[in-house]
């Protein structure tokens, strides 16, 4: 067995060689050692705690590749780019790639020197992935955002349950599950769902000593927001529930002379990319579409203008402040009617089952999916256009889709880069007749059919540059030909775009066959209500350190007060104001005559210990001292 000092030196050497760091953060090395020993490990680490290094360092020490399962496509691309800049070969497969691109990536993992393969969870069950994974030399399976596998967690995603099938195919490969927001009950469920050989949890402290939490109760949230913005230097993020609220608050800050911009899902992709670049604008107002995987270290404050639904969401979003270790602030603004407003929003999250079935049918109609069709099919899905067409409230539709996703019927992804897609609408015979009549299209259609199969039965992702190279046409001409075929009703054509995708995990069912277990529905409703009640209690709390409340919620046994939150600062201020009269009375007594400590203490009704503390305080301040007689006297 390798000596511990040698292992430590080897780990530090790898850390320094690739990432340039001289030491690990707390618990990082312990997690890495556990992984190197082949143990299934659940690592609970706060946002910004350096989770990625816990699977990247051990992978670089061993032969083989690490498969990283993550639902965040933007983060996936960011990690791949970072690793490549370090000279480490990394790749990703997700639904924004064409089938041919995915095949190339998977083949490189089997035959090449890829060290990290990032995979969206819904890709784990595809035939292309299943056929290749057993031929890969996998050394570690890392599961990011592992709380998504627990149906009792705040962000359950059924596609995560497929990781258990992957473990069956890789029985000797250890798993490292990572999350920044799991309560003890969810942590136990994660280990059960991932089939841990034995329970094994390594927990980093959820305390953020540099982050000062505060709650401000006021009907005028705008004025409170301005106070924070004007009193705290540096950049900040303000979380707002709705897009309209985001836009209106941005205008309010601009009118007040504050450099501000907003970020939400309604913006065009290019505009969002520009706005999300670090350092462009001092204040970013955002819905929760912003921030997943954002790695901006110098955010000095995060303000929640709207109350989140859970402490998990609040902790993750507030944790984007102060990731550089310097003093930062997390402020929750609360109006008198906020609890009632969030309760109404909570009620919308669980629409009646018949309304869920109705929305499911409308979605299928909107996407033109017939009963029995659609299994494993994917569609560009604009939820705002859908809601406008059917005159539905967006919040209710989003909640219905989430419940359908939790029950395994479909998956709505975050916005991603989607390849162009085509589906032939006429038969092969009719297409042959068209090619005979229209010779100008014959060569183009034959090229497409030679490159792609299945185009008569389902939408197929295509690569317009690949078609251009094979046909000898320019890419612009390829796109024009597709548009012409679309206008002739020969094909349905979806140009490359940036949008959310809706995946059907199973075929469209008749509404009557759509089953959402009532007991599971009720249990999720109860847990959501419980999470919401903890959020309300946090906002109403006026006595206990805010950091202590958060740490205990995430399982810390005996958290210490932080000393910097609004509750701790108020307690310190009260203590000081209580000390002042005692200090003044001691000075008045000693001004009349020098006194021994016992004589002085006897003149007060309070505990002698308090008098001694006050004496030490006054001595430290240089206001009194002990004379040669042994008595206390004022320093003149």
What does this structure look like?
The chain is of the alpha/beta class. The chain contains 25 helices and 23 strands. Strands 3-4-2-5-6-1-7 form a seven-stranded parallel sheet, with helices on both faces. The radius of gyration is 30 Å and the shape is elongated. The termini are far apart.
Shape: elongated
CA gyration radius, whole angstroms: 30 Å
Helical fraction equals 40-55%
Q: Helix tally?
A: 25
Major sheet description: 7 strands, parallel
Low-confidence segments, given as residue ranges, are 267-279
Number of strands: 23
Strand order of the largest sheet: 3-4-2-5-6-1-7
Distance between the first and last residues' Cα: 71 Å
| SSE-based structural type | alpha/beta
What are the defining features of this structure?
single chain; 636 residues; alpha/beta; seven-stranded parallel sheet; six-stranded parallel sheet; 25 helices; 15% strand; elongated
Provide a brief overview of the structure.
With 636 residues, this protein is of the alpha/beta class. It has a 7-stranded parallel beta sheet, sandwiched between helices.
List the helices and strands and how they pair.
Layout lengths: L3 H16 L8 H9 L4 E4 L8 H9 L3 E5 L3 H13 L4 E4 L5 H13 L4 E4 L7 H7 L4 E6 L19 H7 L5 E5 L4 H10 L7 E3 L7 E7 L3 H11 L3 E5 L3 H13 L4 E4 L5 H8 L6 E4 L12 E6 L6 H8 L9 E7 L3 H11 L4 H14 L11 E3 L2 H8 L3 H13 L3 E3 L3 E3 L1 E5 L3 H10 L1 H13 L8 E3 L1 H8 L3 H13 L3 E4 L2 E3 L1 E4 L13 H23 L5 H8 L12 H27 L4 H6 L5 H13 L3 E3 L5 E3 L2
Parallel strand pairs: 1-6, 1-7, 2-4, 2-5, 3-4, 5-6, 8-13, 9-11, 9-12, 10-11, 12-13
Antiparallel strand pairs: 14-21, 15-21, 16-20, 17-18, 17-19, 22-23
Helix pairs in contact: 1-3, 2-3, 5-6, 13-21, 14-16, 17-18, 19-20, 23-25
